[in-house]
Amino acid sequence: MAIKVGAAIPAGKVWEYIEEETPGCSIGPNEFNVEDLVKGKRIALFALPGAFTPTCSAKHLPGYVEKADQLKEKVDEIWCLSVNDAFVMGAWGREHGATGKVRMIADGNGELTKALGLEMDLTARGIGVRSQRYSILLDNGIVKTLNVEAPGKFEVSDADTMLSQA
Question: Where are the domains of the chain?
Answer without folding.
Answer: 13-165
